Amino acid sequence: MEHNSSNFIKSIIKEDLETGKRDYVYTRFPPEPNGYLHIGHAKSIVINFGLADDFNGKTNLRFDDTNPLKEDTEFVEAIKEDVAWLGYEWDGLFFASDYFEEMYNRALLLIKKGKAYVDDLTADEIRQYRGTLTEPGKESPYRNRSIEENIDLFERMRKGEFGNGEKVLRAKIDMASPNINLRDPVLYRVSHATHHNTGDTWCIYPMYAFAHPLEDAIEGITHSLCTTEFEDQRPLYNWVIEECEMEHKPQQIEFGRLGITNTVMSKRKLKQLVDEKFVDGWDDPRMPTISGLRRKGYTPEAIREFVKHTGVSKGSGLVDEAMLEHFVREDLKLKAPRTMGILKPLKVVITNYPEGQVEMLDAEINPEVPEMGMRQIPFSREIYIEQEDFMEDPPKKYFRLFPGNEVRLKHAYFIKCEDVIKDEEGNIVEIHCTYDPETKSGTGFTGRKVKGTIHWVEASQAIPAEFRLYEPLILDKQDVEDEDEDSEEDVEEEKTFLDYVNENSLEVLQGFVEPNMKEVKAHDKFQFFRHGYFNVDPRHSTDEKIVFNRIVSLKSSFKLQK
After folding, report:
1. 64 among the known binding-site residues?
2. For residue 393, what are the contacts with CB-CB under 8 A and spacing of at least 6?
3. Glutamyl/glutaminyl-tRNA synthetase class Ib catalytic domain: which residues (predicted)?
4. Which pLDDT value is given to residue 490?
5. Among candidates 76, 72, 86, 81, which has minimal Cα distance to 30?
């Protein structure tokens, strides 16, 4: 995971290896399959896989599938696709549900040691008994059941004798602990629900805080890397591993989570955007999901470089969205072919150009990469230009086309506006111009200069195209502080982030592109002259009409700090 930013975890691992505390490095990326991965998960992926690669270690992809009510194989497959697309190969593919039998046996061990008990309190009662940050909790009246009774009840829970919420298994730790996570946390709950992996084999499921450390220990993970909201749970993590008498003892290390301006990164909130039809699915290009960024046109290289430059620290900083855009520009500027597209067409008739004649003009594919070669584009009497490149009554310092003014057509000739054609309502529908054949690009013409250069597409062979331009989905008023998305507690009422959804986040335009774009494929990327970088949409493009998503505009005020 080489980069110029700080990485305190790398220093810890290096010291562990040098002192003999560890003799190998084994990490894991452990998503819960209850939604699609987002850019915040990309940080965890890059950290876990990158650090293992740095030390010739291994990384597992493991699905923390302990909640059958929210999980689905659709999410499992999407997560696998995203990790692979980002450029990483996992050494082992596992599910928490692979270990359900061992987890059950470890829970029985806790009961036999007097470290766990079956509780009849409801979820609300457990919450009331828990106490507050300043007041200790109160012990459950069922806390001192005998070991034999607890074993009997727990086995009957497994057999399905109790309904949802009727009984739970709790750890017996310390109801007066200053750390609320140690106040007899729930380890198992009854849930009569079909599991995506184990079907109806189980009707009790381990809680995340119990299952997760066991999974790490079972797999022999050395460094369990997670975000800082789990720091308070580290004592429970260590308690579970110790009291369950696990052979391997992973070390939990927390790092600051990634926040980006104009973005929400809570799976619950992202799911709400999908469910309430604010967006066109999890892979909508306005979503911060990895699949959304992929569909928009981001590259895995750009995302990896972005994550590496955000660094690895304890602090959870908010990163400007412009920084992410910077890295995709940097990645695409030497990869993307240049071309011309007209997003808001205005027809131009070149009245002194021979009728019926079409000539082919040379244009470089990418001037920054000469070895990419040249392309040919047709030119004729009728072309399209951008509506914004003509003004009938322009302000000062407007150097594009207006009556009597001359401009250069990119890769072609000088043209001069001679006449403006309007419809009955007074709308401009066509511009008539003349051209000077001596001014052809590449001939070395120096007779006179013009201040404006505009792009165009030849009309008779132009390919119809749809252009989708995106703005941030969330307006910058939103305070992007998301809840712990792995928490299974009820989320408190909050001011709704939906109030800050940008109604103008998508603009759809119908225009034209050069005829050599006829054979483009999904995810092909181009730089359209003056408009930015675009990606061929994999979902909506058809043989009749190509749909382009704008990845990012050309210009940015962002400056990368070295």
Report:
1. yes
2. 402
3. 25-332
4. 43
5. 76
pLDDT category, 495, cuts 50, 70, 90? low
Does 517 count as an annotated binding residue?
Answer: no
User: What is the rounded distance in angstroms from the CA atom of residue 260 to the CA atom of residue 275?
Assistant: 23
From the list 24, 99, 109, the residue with the least C-alpha distance to 64 is 99
246 is in an annotated binding site: no
Determine whether the annotation assigns residue 34 to a binding site: yes
Q: Is 40 annotated as a binding residue?
A: yes
What order of strands is seen across the sheet that includes strand 532-536? 338-339, 525-528, 532-536, 546-552, 463-470, 506-513, 341-342
- Under a CB-based contact definition with an 8 Å cutoff, are residues 441 and 489 in contact? no
Q: Of residues 267, 304, 381, 408, which has the active-site annotation? A: 267
Could you give the 3-state DSSP secondary structure of residue 393?
coil
- Whether residue 331 contacts residue 302, with contact meaning beta carbons closer than 8 Å, is answered with yes
What is the average pLDDT across 303-332? 92
φ, ψ for residue 400 (rounded to 5)? Answer: -90, -150
* Helix 8-19 and helix 39-54, axial crossing angle in degrees, nearest 10: 30
User: Residue by residue, what is the 3-state secondary structure of 203-265?
Assistant: CEEECHHHHHHHHHHHHCCCEEEEEHHHHHHHHHHHHHHHHCCCCCCCEEEEECCCEECCCCC
d(CA 225, CA 256): 11
pLDDT tens figures, 238-252: 999 999 999 999 999
Residue 398: HSE in the Cβ half-sphere, 13 Å Cα cutoff? 15
Cβ-proximal residues to 264 (8 Å cutoff; 6+ apart), any chain: 270, 273, 288, 474, 478, 480, 482, 497
Q: In which band, very low, low, confident or very high, does the pLDDT at 558 lie, cut at 50, 70 and 90?
A: low
Active site residue 521: no
pTM, two decimals, is 0.90
Residue 41, annotated as binding a ligand? yes
What letter does residue 278 receive in the DSSP assignment?
S
- Count Cβ neighbours within 10 Å for each residue of 366-390 and write b for 16 or more, e otherwise: beeeeebeebebbbbbebbbbeebb
Active-site residue, selected from the candidate residues 32, 71, 215, 514:
32
The verdict on whether residue 482 carries a ligand-binding annotation is no
Q: CA nearest 456: which of 534, 511, 391, 499?
A: 511
Digit-coded pLDDT (tens) for 67-114:
999 999 999 999 999 999 999 999 999 999 999 999 999 999 999 999
- Tell me whether residue 33 is annotated as binding: yes
Q: In terms of DSSP bridges, do strands 223-227 and 58-63 run parallel, antiparallel, or are they unpaired?
A: unpaired
Catalytic residue among 145, 189, 257, 296: 257
Cβ partners under 8 Å of residue 302, min gap 6: 324, 327, 328, 330, 331, 332
